[in-house]
Amino acid sequence: MDNRAGEMQVLVEVVERGSFSAAGRRLGLSPSAVSKLVTRLEERLGTRLLVRSTRVVTLTPEGEAYAARARRILGEIDEAERVVSAGAAATPRGRLRVSATVGFGERCLVPLVPEFLGRYPQVQLDLSLTDEVIDLVAERADIALRAGPMRDSTLMARKVLESRRVIVAAPSYLARHGTPRTPQELTTHNCLRFNFRRSMDDWPFRDPSSGESYALTVTGNLEGNSGAMVHRLALDGLGLARIARYVAEADIAAGRLVPVLEAFNAGDIELLHAVFVGHDYLAARIRAFVDFLSARIG
Q1: Domain containing 286 — which CATH number?
Q2: Quick one: pLDDT at residue 88?
Q3: How far is the CA of 292 from the CAs of 104, 126, 161, 210, in angstroms?
Q4: I want to staple 294 with a disulfide (CB 3.0 to 4.6 A). Which of 97, 230, 278, 298 is the partner?
């Protein structure tokens, strides 16, 4: 009977430590034994996983895919053993890779990091902020915090936050260009938009008299792929931005941004979910992080 988990561990150690010798020291094996195990794995899979040179060891594309899944499988094996041995009292521990949108990360998540790590000192948090939708497996992430509707039915998701969208502008912009009183007046204003494939140039509105919903096409001289970028440029007085209320809340309270056209607000909601690969033995560190966010933010 072969030891596939052992082969996975050898490969992951080589990748993490950058050489056969360093992996061997960690595993109590000689460099030649490590090399033979990797070669045996490559022969069984029928593909090269590592590119070896005199100084560095790098993964092939096939190696990247295999190593990402191997890390997850090894983590699940460790967690399954901890669940069996410690039951519900398993202590969250180990590396927790989290990807979050920039706006949510900077305003909501980062301020809570000290509290989370103080509560779970055996967790090592690896946090990345990006507005791009990532592949959890390819990016080796345990959790992704994503805005918008869920589309991948193979993933587990838990709602963390919902926020009404609002159109805002800096007082300096409104002083120069005036405050729009109706959505139709936006044709004379600079509207800051997003270039995401899921975004559109139409902004939704609701007629306060009839309750009828409709959309208007807006234009402007900037399209960005980051909510933080559009928010920042709105603060700088470049134009009007339509963003989630939680992103702008502190600036609205401080008078740095002014909501406009609130009487015509469509009331649409931006949802933010914690997304993760679900299985019977969900890692304690993942469960703890999702529960923590839901309690502190939700």
Answers
A1: 3.40.190.290
A2: 45
A3: 15, 16, 13, 42
A4: 298
Residues 106, 60 share a domain: no
Distance CA 237, CA 256 (A): 10
pTM for the full predicted model: 0.63
Residue 10: CATH number of its domain: 1.10.10.10
Alpha-carbon distance of 170 to 207, in angstroms, equals: 25
Q: Measure the CA–CA gap between 47 and 195, rounded to whole angstroms.
A: 39
Range of the domain at 40: 4-85
How does strand 191-194 pair with strand 223-224? parallel
Residue after which a domain boundary falls, among 58, 85, 112: 85
Residue ending a domain, among 57, 85, 113, is 85
**Is the distance from CB of 41 to CB of 11 less than 8 angstroms?**
yes
Q: Which residue has the tokens 């992704």?
A: 144
Q: How high is the pLDDT of residue 107?
A: 87
Q: What is the pLDDT of residues 70-79, one digit of tens each?
A: 888 888 887 7
Q: 173 in helix, strand or coil?
A: helix
pLDDT for residue 137: 64
The residue count for the chain: 298
Is residue 22 predicted with pLDDT exceeding 60? yes
Residue 151 shares a structural domain with residue 105: yes
Task: Measure the CA–CA gap between 80 and 283, rounded to whole angstroms.
Answer: 8
User: Residues 209-234: what's their mean pLDDT?
Assistant: 91
DSSP, collapsed to helix, strand or coil, labels residue 36 as helix
Does residue 26 carry a pLDDT above 90?
A: no
- pLDDT at residue 123 is higher than 90: yes
